[in-house]
Specification:
Order of helices and strands of chain B: EEEHEEHEHHHHEHEHEEH
CATH superfamily of the largest domain in chain B: P-loop containing nucleotide triphosphate hydrolases
Largest sheet of chain B: 6 strands, mixed
CATH topology of the largest domain in chain B: Rossmann fold
CATH architecture of chain A: Orthogonal Bundle
CATH architecture of the largest domain in chain B: 3-Layer(aba) Sandwich
Structural class of chain B: alpha/beta
Mean pLDDT of chain B: 91
Shape of chain B: globular
CATH topology of chain A: MetI-like fold
Number of helices of chain B: 9
Helix content of chain B: 25-40%
Oligomer: heterodimer
Helix content of chain A: over 70%
Distance between the termini of chain A: 56 Å
Radius of gyration of chain B: 18 Å
Low-confidence stretches of chain A: none
Mean pLDDT of chain A: 90
Amino acid sequence: MNARVKAFAPHWGSRLAWVAALVYVVFAASTLQVSWERVQQGGPQAAKLLSRMWPPNMAPDKLDLISSGMLESLQIAVIASFVGVVLSLPLGLMAARNLAPSLLATAARVAIALCRSFHPVIVSILFVKAVGFGALAGVLALIVSSMGFVGKLFAEVLEELDEKQVEAVRATGAGFLAVLIMGVMPQVYARFIGLAAYQFDSNLRNSTMVGIVGGGGIGAALFTAYQRFDYDVVMTILVLTIALIMLSEALSMGLKRVFR
Amino acid sequence: MTALLSLRQLRKEYQPGVPVLHPLDLDFGVTGGGGLTAVIGPSGTGKSTLLRCINRLVDPTAGQILFEGQDLAALRGAPLRHMRCRIGMVFQEYNLVERLTVIENILCGKLGVLPVWRPLLRKFAPADLDRAFELLHAVGLPEDYASRRCDALSGGQRQRVGIARALMQQPRLILADEPTSSLDPKTSVEIMELLQSVSNREQVPVIVNIHNVELARRFSQRIIGLSQGRVIFDGPSEALTDELLNAIYGGKDWQG
């Protein structure tokens, strides 16, 4: 009885990893002065801020300013998503190791990694310096991040292709492009649309951010309102932003249903 | 009379020094007409490799594949694709593009000869569409199946679409790789009957890999017995004796 092998042998490696992670979290929190007292002090402060935010400022001139900013954000998101997603289609194809020659795939993967290495806000600082203040900088920054995200995930989708279906199309004598059109795209199209819809969602959220560094959109107005302590205006912007995001969520769900 | 397809000293090694196919010499379609040739043999004996070498889905290590006077083994790029067009293929697991409709899958048979914009915009020539619908009917599927997606079909129906796709190529030769192995016995017979009838009607020889010896005997004029990458038997179905089957499959317990 006692001689039997243990059914669940202890895995010391994973235990050690968990302990190490826990120790480091505690250590990091202590060096950064993350403490419960400060969180408690923050409570009343937050309540005061919230009370100053209410009611939202609905003055017509403010609403005008906000709605033109929101519209610009929306436009930035739409343009950046469209261009970024269209560009990530060939980029993803080039990065898929089962379709592209390995040298090209490696090059495309490096390009994708570069696109992904910085947060859109940091990229838009670069573009603001390059092309000046305004929506163009925001659009370019979000195109870069869209290509990074959609390109990478699309390449991964392509690498999970069912080779049998592709083989059969190849066996008919079809050329490379025809194989892509009839053998590859039908398999991955729905998931590509899903990625694009998700990226649009994410671009919409980021397009409200790029304005903080001068990339156009509602971000500039939001930042100004914060600095002037116009918390009621901040509230209006936040509420409208949430409404916009929810709207796009519904839109992308509809899109996925259409392209299933 | 020359053969439609001649394999000369065809050899395939996936790993150097481990031949899956020993140098083979085989001729197919000597009569120029239809009819089935069955390739039988144990699993892993190179039947699939043999078939895939013919249309170069697998590259042979050495040897010639003479098809209509040209050596397929020496072709690359566009000329290879051009020759592939004339060889239809039917697969064990149907290999339809699951998310395309039945008619789109059948029209895939035309891809080798169409400019790319036609499949891209789904603008197929009326004559091709007519032919696709004809084939849908010929393989025994009702017309309203045309717009169904293939992932909604049963196995037997999928294999019918697979056969229609191969016929759409207007092939001079059809390769069928275990076309019945994923099907139930009754559907298997139906699919073999279908292959036989289209072969005779369109005057296309069919080379079929098959596990089921009974089906091979019943539907083919000629049987090739393969064992460990060598041809053990090549002759008319009637000449395949139990002794020869033992030689091909080894032992005899399995015959019951």
